[in-house]
From TrEMBL:
Segments passing through the bilayer: 59-78, 84-101, 233-252, 272-291, 613-632, 644-665, 677-699, 711-731, 738-759, 771-794
Record bears the keyword Protein transport: no
SUPFAM superfamilies: Calcium ATPase, transduction domain A, Calcium ATPase, transmembrane domain M, HAD-like
Subcellular location: Cell membrane
Membrane topology: Multi-pass membrane protein
Keyword Transmembrane helix: yes
Protein name from the UniProt record: Cation-translocating P-type ATPase
Domain P-type ATPase A: 118-212
Keywords: Membrane, Translocase, Transmembrane, Transmembrane helix
Length: 800
């Protein structure tokens, strides 16, 4: 049998000439002419920010501006050791830029690998090109799952059905005929064809939609929104406090001018949680790099965070739990049908579809086509109707129309064959029914009254890593729901083989209630759903979300697009249709379902650890504001020079936060980031600030004469360091050997400064006598105990 289809992809190295009457597309000369005129689809689709944007985002921040001004002032009025905070910011900003640049390069390389390439026909030959190379007037070929890259007008259609819901909101597919408009951003759900590009580049209807779909973005993240909220409140607190401190130190106190400025800056700098934003960017960037090494393309950065919050994952069976390929294991003729004739029918059906799905490909591999059969009309497979069909001229003058699809859709209820099919489905086998239609293929009731002729038994190839992945989700308290268009019993058998909890709780989606609350209850009570239509998949995601679930949806077929778009996180396989890859936030380029645990773990690591270290940064901000307010109210000299707080911040926040932010963390991310951080930061900072100020006042009464100011500051620094170390010890729980080692190393670092003479002089820290240093230790111990008690009370009273 000879059959050449307009939508078939041809090898550009060994081109197949088009049949007579088929459009040949533009010539090479015409393409060159259009390129010269700039009529190219040149929408800049980027997977990451440019280098200049990365530098601007990391350098030109509100707090960097404040710190930069203070740094310049300190370089003129104080020794270099009081300007160390500026060098730390330069280093941190540099690290942030380098890490995000590395993440950009990772994303860019993955985006090239994962880019969908449309097929265009030029000089009569089909070839895959980049979407950006399409020119005005190009003839673009289409098949199931293809996303329409530019606006155009249909030229050839073969039962072409297009879903425009992403643009218009209309869920029903639109049947396209020659001359109909094709809208960029829509996608093919069934059939094939070709269209002429009439609008390219920024003129195309969905050009901006296409650009935003794959852009690296830092927006719509609860974590980043929470940090921005915190920084806004910090600014409100910082401005009046800083003004009061400046007036107090420069006007009220008649001290040395330069020294007053140095102490004033020492009070302002620690109020700024400057490292928090940078550390968040670094943690996200490192997450992208780690996932990139596992061939996972993160199209939207908050997806890492979103997947960490997921508590329900909806899995499509085909392509997710099973591999794409299938094998025909048995052919069972029904009603005395001749097996040799059935094989001919199956061979002809296989050849009639230029873009076969996995089931039909298995049939093509098993049953060769018969040359004398000729396809006169075809009906492509649609996941909504769940069957395909074709009409043939059999070579001897006879004609016939055949359907191939789901037995429980094509057979009436109570048919004797259904029991036999049920037994096969219970073994995890997939069964297709070959039926002879009694009416024309274009009749809406073509399936009614069709004569069952044979059962085609197919065996699906289970993914070897699927069982381990499902086990991981179970251990992490993430509910897995298998949602498939296949027979429910068959899906249940596959899920059972893979050890899915609740695999025996199976529902035929045709019996699901349509009311959202009732559907949500059915989804909570069951784990496996079969015969699900594309619209039902979307409804099921919405029903789960209505119960407060954070839902991830995996899929690779065009029937998954609507659900992927509506889910909190859409995950597509790299081999999936172009449409699914366009709407998914995460693309698994290696087609390995086993990569998902890595993505979940990376998200949990980032979110959980940033929540931890944010507490450290904000405790410092709170105690700095408290100390400044107490200094203003009591009209005394400010306690610390910038060098003291640079040392404290480095040992109790900067270095530990970097290691804690990159540590493993399997705890599922929880909502209300701001509340969870501030419930620790406010009481911890208040206690630390008050205790430090009390130590300073006692030291002022204890010391007098030359060197008193240095001794007072040293005692207060000791108290604040010990309290901050206790906060670090609380945040670092549960303890591991390296966390204990980290805390110990920070303590030894401070001890080193206190005991080495040149470091004592450099940081102007020297403990005088024994009474006040031990008093500082005692006050710190009481404050640390108070913080421990308060934190435990907060955990009980305001659980996260």
């Amino acid at each position: 049998m000879t059959h050449i289809d307009a939508g078939a992809e041809l090898d550009p190295v060994h081109p197949v000439p088009p049949p007579k009457g088929r459009a040949t597309g533009l010539t090479t000369a015409e393409v060159a002419e259009r390129v010269a005129r700039g009529e190219v689809n040149d929408v800049p689709v980027r997977s990451s920010r440019s280098l200049s944007e990365i530098v601007r985002a990391n350098v030109f921040t509100r707090f960097n501006a404040i710190i930069g001004v203070l740094w310049v002032i300190m370089l003129f009025v104080a020794p270099i050791q009081d300007s160390l905070f500026g060098f730390v910011i330069v280093a941190n900003t540099g690290i942030g830029i380098i890490q995000e640049w590395r993440a950009k390069k990772t994303l860019d390389s993955l985006a090239v690998i994962g880019e969908a390439k449309p097929t265009v026909r030029r000089d009569g030959q089909a070839a895959e090109i980049s979407a950006s190379e399409i020119v005005l007037g190009d003839l673009v070929e289409l098949g199931p799952g293809d996303k329409i890259p530019v606006d155009g007008e249909a030229v050839e259609t073969d039962s072409l059905e297009v879903d425009e819901s992403l643009l218009t909101g209309e869920a029903d597919p639109v049947i396209k005929k020659p001359g109909d408009k094709m809208m960029s951003g829509s996608f093919v759900v069934a059939g094939g064809g070709a269209f002429t590009a009439t609008k390219v580049g920024r003129e195309a209807y969905a050009a901006q939609l296409a650009e935003e779909a794959s852009r690296f973005t830092l927006v719509h993240s609860e974590l980043r929104t929470g940090i921005s909220t915190i920084l806004k409140y910090v600014t409100w607190l910082m401005v009046p406090t800083s003004i009061g401190l400046v007036i107090s130190q420069l006007v009220v106190k008649d001290d040395n001018f330069k020294e007053s400025i140095a102490y004033t800056v020492g009070g302002i700098v620690p109020m700024i949680p400057e490292g928090l934003v940078l550390l968040t960017s670094v943690a996200f960037a490192i997450g992208v790099i780690r996932l990139g090494r596992k061939q996972c393309l993160v199209q939207e950065l908050p997806a890492i965070e979103g997947l960490a919050r997921v508590d329900t994952v909806c899995l499509d069976k085909t392509g997710t739990l099973t591999e794409g390929g299938m094998d025909v294991t048995e052919l069972r003729p029904l009603g005395g049908a001749d097996e040799a004739y059935v094989r001919k029918v199956l061979g002809a059906l296989g050849e009639s579809d230029p873009r076969p799905n996995a089931s039909l490909q298995a049939i093509i591999d098993s049953y060769p086509d018969s040359e004398e059969w000729r396809c006169t009309e075809s009906l492509p497979f649609s996941s909504a109707r769940k069957y395909s069909g074709a009409s043939f001229s059999e070579g001897d003058g006879a004609t016939s129309t055949w359907l191939l699809g789901a037995p429980d859709v094509l057979l009436p209820d109570g048919d004797a064959s259904l029991a036999e099919i049920e037994d096969l489905n219970k073994q995890g086998l997939r069964v297709l029914l070959l039926a002879r239609a009694v009416v024309d293929l274009d009749d809406p009731a073509v399936a009614t009254g069709a004569t069952a002729t044979a059962l085609v038994v197919l065996e699906q190839r289970l993914r070897p890593d699927a069982a381990d992945t499902l086990r991981y989700f179970e251990e992490q308290d993430v509910a897995a729901k298998v949602i498939s268009g296949d027979n429910a019993v068959s899906v249940s058998a596959v899920a059972g083989k893979l050890g899915l909890p609740g695999a025996e709780n199976t529902v035929d989606a045709r019996k699901l209630p349509t009311e959202q609350d009732e559907m949500a209850q059915a989804l909570d009570d069951n784990a496996v759903f079969g015969r699900v239509t594309p619209q039902q998949k979307r409804d099921m995601v919405g029903a789960l979300q209505s119960r407060g679930h954070t839902v991830a949806m995996t899929g690779d077929g065009v029937n998954d697009v609507l659900a992927l778009k509506d889910a909190d996180i859409g995950v597509s396989m790299g081999s999936g249709s172009e449409a699914t890859r366009a709407v998914a936030q995460i693309v698994l380029l290696n087609n390995s379902f086993a990569t998902l645990p890595s993505v979940v773990a990376e998200g949990r690591r980032v979110i959980g650890n940033i929540t931890r270290v944010a507490t450290l940064f904000l405790v410092k901000t709170v105690y700095s504001v408290i100390i400044a307010l107490l200094v203003v109210c009591s009209q005394v000299e400010y306690i610390f020079l910038p060098r003291h707080l640079t040392l404290l911040s480095t040992l109790t926040i900067g270095v530990p936060a970097f290691f804690l932010a990159l540590a493993p963390n399997k705890e599922r991310a929880k909502p209300h980031f701001v509340r969870r951080v501030m419930r620790y930061a406010i009481p911890g900072g208040v206690v630390a600030g008050v205790a430090t100020f009390v130590t300073y006042l006692l030291a002022r009464h204890h010391y007098d004469g030359a060197g008193a100011r240095e001794a007072e500051t040293s005692a207060a620094t000791l108290a604040l360091f010990l309290i901050a170390m206790w906060v670090l010890a609380i945040i670092a729980r549960p303890y591991t050997w390296w966390r204990i080692g980290l805390i110990g190393a920070m303590g030894l670092g401070f001890l080193f400064v206190l005991t080495v003479p040149w470091l004592q002089d450099f940081f102007q820290l020297k403990l005088v006598g024994t009474t006040m240093p031990w008093a500082a230790v005692g006050i710190a111990a009481v404050a640390s105990l108070a913080i421990e008690v308060i934190y435990r009370w907060v955990d009980r009273r305001f659980p996260a």
